[in-house]
Specification:
Shape: elongated
CATH topology of the largest domain: Fic-like fold
Strand content: 5-15%
Order of helices and strands: HHHHEEHHHHHHEEHHHHHHHEHHEE
CATH superfamily of the largest domain: Fido-like domain
Number of strands: 7
Structural class: mainly alpha
Largest sheet: 3 strands, antiparallel
Number of domains: 3
Length: 427
Amino acid sequence: MKLPLIPEYSIEDAKKAWEYADTFDVIDAVFKYNKKYLHWEELKYRELPADPLYIWILMKAFRKRDMKYLTFDTIDLKYDLLDDFLEKLHFLDKSAAGSISSGLDSISRDRDQFIINSLMEEAIASSQIEGATVTRKIAKRMLREKRKPVNKDERMILNNYITMKEIIKIKNQDLTPELILKIHTTITSDTLDDPKDEGRLRDNNEIRVFDLRGNILHTPPDFKLIEELIEKFCEFANSDDEQFIHPVIKGIILHFLIGYIHPFNDGNGRCARSIFYWYLLRKDYWLFKYMAVSRAIKDSKGQYKMAYQYTESDENDLTYFIRYNLAAVKTAVDNILKYIEKKQRESIQGLKILQDSDGLNLRQAEIIKSLIKSPDKPITIKEIIETYHVAYATARNDLFHLEKSGYLLKQKSGKEYIFIFRGLKKE
């Protein structure tokens, strides 16, 4: 699909459009489709009360009333704060302030496991967006067992996982060009065609963003401008704005700008999403530590790409990109709420297991519950270490105790043990 185009129109077209301004059906359509913030490509095939061009001209005119403008270097950006945006932002503000915290408190013993699982989900999905073909099941097993990646796709996922854990550690640091290069190095290690491109800014103008048919969708700025653009990008990320920009909106803008500047030969998307996380965690949106936004993006990958295209084709109107990303974030929050509800149900089940158990602690009961879901899946000490964030000795004691109690069968596999679930009753 080619880059969507916005229709050109004359002064006479504009005059003709305004002749419809007092027509109820026309104005109703204008406000209806502006509320949805349709792009021309989404509007032109609709059944409309007037020529689509006239509807579009009026839609654009009304959009200008509340438009906010932002200039980044020579890049003019703009966006509308739709009512739908404000609702989602308010929900996120409440969530970050603690309304979801109470739910997480009720499963506090699962927090570390939840964070690790979310980082895994984010790492896997972010890699899959960029073409990694490893399944979630295989990828998670690799990460939990700390197995070395066997191919480029697995390496990409491991790099993303390491990067996400590092982002949590550096969330209070100012963003610098050096830090961006470090993030890029970590996220692309041993995955690029030319290893010299790891942590190195683009030094050519050969990079283009194409569709599957070879049509050019985006031509990034000249490579000679990248160093200065990244300096200004860091200044923008670190500074408070003269005109207030909501932190979630600004995080989405930073995400877009990395994609627009395309400072690297490869790895731009993964780097952009990592910086988005860094910024929201820096602004105390603690909930993002638990969120796998890229999973929501992966499930609507075509819309993600289209959000970039709609923005660039319509005079860098970021509203399209913000609309898409806020929806993805909302999906990620909804997944957290479902997780909390699920864990609360499992806690009740866990208490029953404990009542019938041979002196199991809470973590050991959790291990049994996970094995009930996947009874044919062997488990290892390394997997317990990574999943539950415990020391080797603790993980070993857990599995040996469960084996002694009759829940697991211990088998030797090379230099390590694997444990197979035997069932809830001792044999």
